[in-house]
Write a structure and sequence with these properties.
Elements: E1 19-25, H1 44-52, E2 54-60, H2 66-75, H3 79-82, H4 98-104, E3 110-113, E4 142-146, H5 152-160, H6 195-207, E5 215-220, H7 251-255, H8 259-264, H9 286-316, E6 323-328, E7 352-353, E8 355-358, E9 367-374, H10 378-386, H11 400-403, E10 415-420, H12 428-433, E11 441-446, E12 450-455, E13 461-464, H13 482-498, E14 507-510, E15 513-516
Helix pairs in contact: 6-9
Length: 520
């Protein structure tokens, strides 16, 4: 993998600065698009965007869960450099990000939703309430409509529409179902009243107020749990729809596959996925996971419908051909694979995410890219498109050569991500494994042939993806794979060496003053 540390110059349309619309849909799996041939999920509006833009089939998050993943998306840095290790880890104020860079380009970047950015506490008063939550706003954004996970703004909006009971998040419980029950019944709110519809409407209203090029980040919560969705999406898919689950024969076999799984899987709680549910995830059956996945698919189609509403509003406003659209996610969702839900760990199901970029001024319409791309590439792509120089070294690379129909020289031949399972507040992982916090982490390097998982202080893993695409057979201890394991460990070591923070490493003080030379 190469490590360019500057933004490749791109010849772009200069007559008018484009509008920038960055859309994230939280916890969306990269295989859940009909445009990539999913077995049942239908996403006609995203497919329409892909036909006019570039679809990146092998796009991956840089970390999980939300805060670490979004830190990579927003800063263009791997977790090894931005050091947002978990939800609640502050983002160091010294790092540049896409909102600050957009301001330098003359935009007022405006947020709809959330960024899950914990502020740097240094220089802040200890009593500042912003230090009591990880759901802060990325520096540089103007927040037009916040919608963090408590959803109070949306609940207030629902009450204004006659839903007197929209006081707490238990409004997600389907009508007629018991709290915590897995049900394909619909909640009390309609498909025009979802959180997605609320944010889409707020963005469309704001867009109508603009009289100059704009930059908007619409950050949708869905299809993040709780798993519940109104009609017609609640019964759009059946539990037996979709591909076979990627998982071992039973939950016990899955947990026995690695010490990390034996630790993490029992900690998963039902209430994180179905509102009001109690008890461990292990109490749910194979049929329960299938029912939940069908609801998850419906939530994806619900978001897709609201994206169509946004596309039409852009066209009605005459802004469609002036707007660069980026659609992606922060991380993905296991959706029952490996007998689990949510995100984290090392399986592809948590990290393979969608990416479509439509640039009407420069894009090659309908292009599909099979090269490995990273969430770290979004920030440098916007920098290249807008002619902005980042203020620190970046780990990602601009995707503009792909968007313009070509291919970047020396592109990466593998993808890399990280996961940190430290527990600073309670120390549970540290006590369980007898490790220091800085030993509770893993890094993954993956290409089309093999996937190597390096734990700092636990046994490594190696999967032969050609023969084992579901990641069920760890061959790291097999002597026949010893040379391959060493090869991928060396690749990972070299990657980390190339991507150490380069902010000042390309500057040297000489008798003539500072000289900076960043390789292209």
């Amino acid at each position: 993998m190469q490590n360019p540390t500057s933004i490749e110059p791109i010849s772009v349309e200069k007559a008018r600065r484009p509008n920038i619309l960055l859309i994230t849909a939280d916890q969306w799996r990269g295989d859940c698009l009909s445009a990539v041939g999913h077995a049942c999920v239908k996403t006609p509006e995203i497919d329409a965007l892909a036909r006019e833009g570039t679809l990146f089939r092998q796009h991956y998050a840089g970390a999980a869960p939300c805060s670490p993943a979004r830190a990579t998306l927003y800063t263009g840095l791997y977790q090894m450099n931005h050091r947002v290790c978990r939800n609640g880890s502050p983002l160091d104020a010294r790092f540049d990000n896409l909102a600050l860079a957009a301001r330098r380009a003359g935009y007022d970047p405006t947020l709809f939703g959330y960024t899950d950015t914990a502020p740097d506490p240094r220089g802040m008063d200890a009593a500042d309430p912003h230090l009591t939550t990880y759901e802060g706003v990325l520096p540089g954004f103007t927040a037009r409509q916040l919608l963090p996970e408590h959803e109070r703004q949306w609940l207030s909006w629902l009450r204004s529409r006659g839903h007197a009971n929209a006081v707490r998040r238990d409004i997600h419980t389907p009508v007629g179902a018991e709290a915590g029950e897995i049900s394909d019944a619909a909640p009390a709110y309609s498909s025009d009243e979802t959180q997605t519809a609320f944010l889409a409407g707020e963005f469309i209203r704001w867009m109508g107020e603009q009289d100059r090029p704009w930059f908007a980040h619409v950050s949708f919560l869905r299809p993040h749990p709780p798993f519940s969705v109104p009609a017609p999406f609640n019964r759009m898919y059946k539990p037996d729809d979709g591909p076979a689950f990627a998982r071992a024969e039973n939950r016990e076999a899955e947990q026995e596959a690695h010490p990390y799984l034996a630790y993490a899987m029992p900690l998963s709680d039902k209430g994180s996925f179905i509102h009001g549910a109690q008890g461990p995830l292990s109490a749910w059956s194979s049929e329960d996971f299938a029912a939940i996945r069908a609801i998850y698919y419906g939530m994806i189609s619900e978001v897709d419908a609201q994206l169509g509403r946004i596309w039409q509003a852009l066209k009605d406003a005459g802004a469609w051909d002036d707007t660069l659209v980026v659609f992606t996610s922060d991380h993905a969702e296991m959706a029952g694979d490996h007998w689990t839900l949510g995100k984290g760990g090392f399986f592809d199901g948590s990290y393979h995410i969608p990416l479509i970029i439509r640039d009407p001024a420069n894009g090659a319409a309908g292009r599909i890219v099979d090269d490995f791309t990273s969430a770290a590439d979004i920030f440098p792509t916007l920098c290249a498109r807008l002619g902005i120089e980042p203020k620190n070294g970046l780990d990602g690379r601009s995707l503009m050569p792909f968007i313009m129909g070509g291919r970047a020289e020396g592109w990466r031949d593998a993808i890399f991500w990280e996961f940190d399972f430290r527990d600073i507040a309670k120390g549970e992982a540290e006590r369980h494994f007898g490790l220091r916090s800085n030993e509770c982490n893993l890094a993954v390097i993956r290409d089309d042939r093999f996937k190597y998982v390096h734990f700092t202080a636990l046994p490594p893993q190696l999967f032969n993806l050609s023969d084992d695409p579901m990641e069920l057979d760890d061959v790291a201890a097999d002597p026949a794979y010893a040379a391959i394991r060493l090869e991928y460990a060396e690749k990972l070591l070299s990657l980390r060496a190339r991507h150490l923070d380069q902010t000042l490493a390309y500057t040297e003080l000489t008798e003539k003053g500072p000289v900076t030379r960043r390789p292209r």
